[in-house]
Design brief:
Distance between the termini: 93 Å
Shape: globular
Number of helices: 4
Strand order of the largest sheet: 1-2
Helix content: 55-70%
Structural class: mainly alpha
Largest sheet: 2 strands, antiparallel
Strand content: 5-15%
Order of helices and strands: HEEHHH
């Protein structure tokens, strides 16, 4: 039986497959998110929540514990998605290597909460509730 041989095209295909990561799809629609960047952003947001106390609890009742837990989960998911979409924009894979891009996703995930609040305040500055709704000044 002859020895199996490999061609240059086969090696190139294998190398390209090893380098590429799967993009996430939802309902058959590609979202353009890479799973590795989402996981790095998730761990960055968890680090910020745990070590920096970015989502502090308010009291010790069961209701507040459940509310704080749900809020922390939503903040972690939002930070992860933010890291998944913003990291490829800032850390271009051809310029920086893959480990640097994962590190950038971790940092973006850690500070995404503060960046999103700053962006929201730039678009709609916080004011008194109901101040712009009719009535006397």
């Amino acid at each position: 039986m002859p020895e199996p041989t490999s061609t240059a095209a086969g090696i190139a295909t294998l190398a390209a497959t090893a380098v590429s990561t799967a993009a996430i799809t939802a309902f058959g629609i590609p979202l353009g998110l890479r799973a590795d960047l989402l996981v790095a952003g998730l761990f960055g947001s968890l680090g910020a929540i745990i070590m920096l106390n970015t989502v502090p609890g308010s009291s010790d009742t069961w209701r507040e514990l459940v509310r704080t837990t749900l809020r922390r989960m939503l903040v972690a998911m939002a930070s992860s998605v933010t890291a998944g979409y913003l990291t490829p924009m800032f850390a271009v894979p051809s310029i920086v290597g893959e480990p640097w891009q994962l590190g950038a996703a971790f940092v973006v995930g850690a500070f995404a909460q503060r960046m999103l609040v700053l962006a929201r305040d730039k678009v709609a500055p916080p004011g008194k509730p109901g101040a712009d709704v009719g009535g006397a000044p």
